[in-house]
Amino acid sequence: MISKVNHAEETLQAGPWPFVTLRHETRGGRRLLWRARDHRKGLFRQKRALEHVRAPAWQTALYNWIMGLIFVIGSSLFMAGSAMALFPKIVAGLPDWTTNVTFFAGSIPFTTAAYLQLFQAANADQTAAGTGVRPRLFGWSPDSPGWLSAATQFIGTVAFNFNTFDAINTPKGWVAQDLVIWTPGMIGSVLFLVSAYLAYIEVGHAHLSRPRRELGWWIAAINLAGCVAFMIASTLAYVPRHGVSAVVMDVSNANLWFGAFCFALAAALSMREARHAGDNAAA
């Protein structure tokens, strides 16, 4: 979608319908490039330098870096849990619940980082420190793919909290297992996939985009690949009446490990990207 808005100064805007994720502005004789994702995370050098403003706490390099680190921790614990499930000898001699507790432990950093991301997205338009505006805890910006992505991911992580907690003390019977473990896992995986696609179109400015020489595009694309793997893992984890085969569970856990690896890699790249955020952008 490309449209032109004519006011006192010219603005050319584009994005995947119905969203606007890219603007070319002319302000004071200077051409400025506005990207939705950069705006949300505080990665906008030109605009902040032009307006001489200081970033709020949630758009600083430190905030983005810590958020990425917490995602890395959660992803690493999911990778560890998946490896334990694939190779039981790793946890030989340890309590039976060790693997499932590791998954639950990993779900907590996921939810923590997802909320930090949602808080950041909810306050994306408050881009200057000391403005006196009270930060919003959750916000409501359905016209922003970034906010929608953060909101759906946060809800998805909460579903994984239930999924992993209920698995610690696995209930008897396939119906109960599918109800309290598989169902919230599937809900979380679907929401993760929706969230990842929204983040992908936000940074690609189209519903389908080619690889770009932008770190943000690769972060979103790698994250999307991880969500596809999580979706496969959750689907295969369904417990039928006569039980699930060991081969199917191995394939499920392998996809779970790969998905978590993608999340860890994307989060690590976001930590590298964080150096361009906040007050550093005005330098």
Short characterization:
Keywords: Membrane, Transmembrane, Transmembrane helix. With 283 residues, this protein is α+β, with helices and mostly antiparallel strands.
Mind explaining what this structure looks like?
This protein is an alpha+beta fold and 283 residues long. The chain has one domain (57-282). It has eight helices and four strands; from the N terminus they run ββββαααααααα. It has helices at residues 36-41, 45-51, 61-86, 98-122, 145-168, 174-204, 215-236, 246-273; strands at residues 2-6, 10-14, 22-27, 30-35. Strands 1-2-3-4 form a four-stranded antiparallel sheet. A hairpin with a 7-residue loop joins strand 2 and strand 3 (22-27). Helix 4 packs antiparallel against helix 5, helix 6 (174-204) packs antiparallel against helix 7 and helix 7 (215-236) packs antiparallel against helix 8 (246-273). The longest helix has 31 residues, at 174-204. The chain is elongated, with a radius of gyration of 21 Å. The chain crosses the membrane at residues 62-87, 179-203, 215-239, 251-269. This is YrhK domain-containing protein. Keywords: Membrane, Transmembrane, Transmembrane helix.
Properties at a glance:
alpha+beta; 4 strands; membrane; YrhK domain-containing protein; transmembrane helix; transmembrane
